[in-house]
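Hi everyone,

Forwarding the result from last night's run.
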Amino acid sequence: MGERKPNVLVFSGDLGRWGRPMIRDTQVVPHADVLLVETTYGNRTHPDVEPSEQLAKVVNAAAERGVALLIPAFAVGRTQELIWRLRELEEANRIPRLPTYIDRPMATDATEVFCQHPEDHDIDMKLLMDERRCPLCCKPDTFTRTPEESKALNHIKGPMIIIAASGMATAGRIVHHLKQRLPDRATTVLLVGFQAADTRGQLLQKGAKQLRMHGHEIPLRAHIETIDGLSAHADRDEIFRWLRGFREAPRQTHIVNGEPAAAKELAECISARLGWSVNIAQQIQTVALT
C-alpha cells in the first residue's frame, strides 16, 4: 500500500481584495481537502466607485464646515491606506491640506513598520520608497502617543482630521472624540470599515439619535458618512474569484467568521454556482477532518 497523504486544511483568514494600494493582491490556493472560508461580505458587493473620489467629497465638505472629521479606523492596514489616499488627494490639489492626527500608538508603530519594510508591499509603494518619497512618512501628520496628547485634541478648533481606533467605535480613543464632538452639527464621522451588528459604528450608520458612552447618553447631531469601498475584506464576488482558484472542490467546505445572513447566502451561492457541499460552522461544532 502506498503512503497515505495528509489532509490539507486551508483557512482563508480575512480574505483581502485585488488592486488595492500598498497591499499585495490575494493569493490563490490550488488545493484543499478541508476549507474554512470567511463570509464577512458574503451577501453583498462593494460599490463600483473609486474610494478616493468619495473620500475627497467627504473631506471637502467637512473642511467647508470648519470643524473635525473623525474617522474610526483599524490601526493596522486601514489607517495606513487612509494616510496614503489623503496624501495622494492633497498632492493632486483635490482636497485642502488639513492638520491630520493619527491618535493610536499601535497605528503609529504599525506605520513605522510599513515604512521600514517596503519589500513587503505592492509595487506602487516600492517605487515611491525608491524615490525617497515615502507615502506614509513624508505627509506632515501628527502621531499622538500619550493620553495627554490625545486629550489635547479636544481643545483644537478649526478643520482637521482625527483617525483613531477602534474601527467599529466599540472602544479606544475614538470613543472619547465621539463623546466630545458628536453633539456638534458641523462634525463629520466617516466610517470606512465593516460595522458588526449592535456596535456603535453600526448604530451610527442606522441613524441613532444618541449613543451611550462612558455612562452618559450623548446626543448625535453630527454628519455620518460611510465609504464601503475602503473595506479590506473581499466582497461576495471577490470571494468567488478566490474560490475558483481551487483546481477541484474541497471534500469539506465550512463557512466561518460572518453574520448569519451573510453565511447563509454565501453557502447557497457556493452550492448553486460551484456545486460544492457546504456547511455553515456553528459554535463549538466538532468536525472530523478525515
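Residues 9-45+233-280 form one domain.

Cheers,
N.
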